[in-house]
Write a structure and sequence with these properties.
By secondary structure, this protein is α+β, with helices and mostly antiparallel strands. The protein has seven helices and three strands. Helix 3 crosses helix 6 and helix 4 packs antiparallel against helix 5. It comes from Peredibacter starrii.
Length: 166
């Protein structure tokens, strides 16, 4: 009898959610509204573009790394919030944290960009630069990930970090 009463109570207490029941943060986290999930999808799309271009040149795809992505994203977020200046200052510390987290790593590199709205635009921008293109198509770097954040005005801050793991 107690189970029946508890079951009825549970069924009465539960209701089908409506759009009015959603937390405002849900729209920020929803890919369809351009929130965090959308930023992650843009980062994944960018890495796909890079790896397809590497493959077209006979190069292996970069190995994805959660440790690299976390550092790249944090740096992008800090620039977007104005907590750190735009640029690669602090790269040595980020690379040291990545190497510690991964338990390995030799050389490390980083690129930053502000403004490209799409992964295609970002790749085109970096592919035009000799130094950026060299990093993107390097056989030395084996691991890479991208971080992306938007400031209050909607401007994108992109950070790609590379790591050589022998």
């Amino acid at each position: 009898m107690k189970i029946l009463i508890l079951s009825l109570f549970f069924l009465v207490a539960c209701k089908t959610p409506t759009t009015n029941d959603f937390n405002p943060l849900d729209s920020y986290l929803n890919i369809s509204t351009g929130g965090l999930s959308s930023l992650g999808a843009m980062g994944a799309e960018y890495m796909d573009i890079v790896n397809v271009n590497r493959g077209n040149l006979g190069l292996p795809a970069f190995i994805d790394s959660d440790a690299i992505e976390a550092e790249a994203t944090k740096h992008a977020e800090n620039m977007a919030k104005g907590l750190t200046p735009f640029g690669t200052s602090g790269n040595e510390e980020r690379c040291a944290r990545i190497k510690t987290a991964m338990g390995q790593g030799v050389s490390c590199g980083e690129m930053v960009a502000r403004g490209p709205d799409t992964p295609e635009e970002l790749f085109a921008l970096w592919a035009k630069s000799d130094s950026s293109r060299t990093r993107l198509m390097s056989t030395k770097f084996t691991h890479s990930a991208i971080g992306l954040a938007k400031d209050a005005s909607g401007n994108e801050f992109w950070v790609q970090i590379f790591l050589e793991v022998p």
